[in-house]
Amino acid sequence: MATRPGSAALTPPAPAHLPGTLGELRASGYHPRSVKAELRANLLARLSSGAPTFPGIVGFDDTVLPQVERAILAGHDMVLLGERGQGKTRLIRSLVNLLDEWVPMVAGSEVHDDPMEPVSAYAQRRVSELGDELPIAWIHRSERYGEKLATPDTSVGDLIGDIDPVKVAEGRTLGDPETVHFGLVPRTNRGIFAVNELPDLAERIQVSLLNVLEERDIQVRGYTLRLPLDLLVVASANPEDYTNRGRIITPLKDRFGAEITTHYPLDLDSEINLIDQEAQLVAPVPAHMVETVARFTQEVRESPAVDQRSGVSARFAVACTEALAGAALRRSALLGEPSTARVGDLYGVVPTLRGKVEFDVAEEGRELEVLAHLARRSIMATFRAHLGGIDLTGLIDQLDSGATIESGDLVSSAALLASIGAFPGLARMVQACEGDTADITPELTAACVEFALEGLWLSRRISKDDSELGVRYTGTQREEE
């Protein structure tokens, strides 16, 4: 996972060759430019070179990203509107990568004053006193991002600022503008400020942002203070919150230049790519199981039993895949040998996903049954996609001739393979499940065999018995006997 922009762990030391005083900065040929001009120029450079504009953002290439690019080029503030877990915050934080890597500021300034165009009383005083000897500090792009999660207890002081009693106690008068303690918005001057879940912000607090978005200044209590700010303001909102729990007040909504709707991955490949990018795996999860999880996620999103207004987050697929890896690691610890995730692990993982899905009220009490049914459908869809055209007669004949295959948490890969033995078409079956580039191991082979067995059972070509200790697969002829 990427660390949050602005994290100290991401901030490198400023290069030694950068100017250290205002005089040196002037001599270097530096010219101030606004944040929006900076973003526009850097985005145009990426578009012209063919470089990815937003690396790490999956599934938005042909839909959301072009709209974001147009908004940036137009110099518009944005609202990203979408259900939970659609990557809104990730997209907002990735905007930081379009800023210049380093920009100068007046050393000690709380609002990142540009040395050539200072706006705060502190910076103006320092420039007047020191002239070309004014010390210059350099701020990295990661420090030019401010973010606030809108909560009901957020105050105007948090966002804009308030009187600092410590500065007053030091002897400054109440009329001195340097007694102001700046809030998050002015402290993000010359950067990007984001408000997550904007409708949850109390309406009277939203009013404090009106001047920021239009007049580009702030007002603090009764001070005759006009601090012109240079910002890109981006907000996120959930449609349900937008219309029911809270709302964005009309004057504020009107001040955003663009409202962009996000979405969940529209195709299977995007869902798989998202899992591959985000899941932190502690044990191997085969490709066919990742695909099954992706199909499972899409099945849940499309199910009429699920309350679609709340959505099914991308975190559902990520958590499911990570839980499969956890199941494989647990088996490794119990048996003392390597293991990989198998299809049987999915059924054990299903109950842990219950909290990530909001069900229709008519399904109360049937939630786990619904999820298990959708999991079986996803397994069957992946089975058809990979093994539907593969001859599995050799595997079926082994079972019809009396073989019994047991699987479960306490069944090792070696034991599973020994119970079925070699059969015609085994290598081709594994290749069909995992592709030509897979590193074939006994654990992966066992996972593919169990997947084929589960698919054959779901298509009613073999039998399966469940018990507390695991499952047993047998042939249909034996079942009839």
Enumerate the spans where pLDDT stays under 50 for 5 or more consecutive residues. Answer: 1-9
What structural class is derived from the secondary structure elements?
Answer: alpha/beta
Number of strands: 12
- Major sheet: order of its strands? 4-7-8-1-9
* Terminus-to-terminus distance: 54 Å
Overall number of domains: 2
| Average residue pLDDT | 89
Report the portion of residues in β strands: 5-15%
Largest sheet: 5 strands, parallel
Number of helical runs?
22
Shape: elongated
List its traits:
481 residues, alpha/beta, 2 domains, 22 helices, 12 strands, elongated, disordered N terminus
Write the layout of secondary structure elements.
Blueprint: H1 22-27, H2 35-49, H3 64-74, E1 78-81, H4 88-94, E2 102-106, H5 121-130, E3 136-140, E4 145-149, H6 156-159, E5 161-163, H7 165-169, E6 180-182, H8 184-187, E7 191-196, H9 203-206, H10 210-213, E8 231-237, H11 239-245, H12 250-255, E9 258-261, H13 268-278, H14 287-302, H15 314-335, H16 343-349, H17 367-387, H18 393-400, E10 405-407, H19 413-420, H20 426-434, H21 442-458, E11 463-467, E12 470-474, H22 476-480
Parallel strand pairs: 1-8, 1-9, 4-7, 7-8
Antiparallel strand pairs: 2-3, 5-6, 10-12, 11-12
Helix pairs in contact: 2-3, 13-14, 13-15, 14-15, 14-17, 15-16, 17-21, 19-21, 20-21
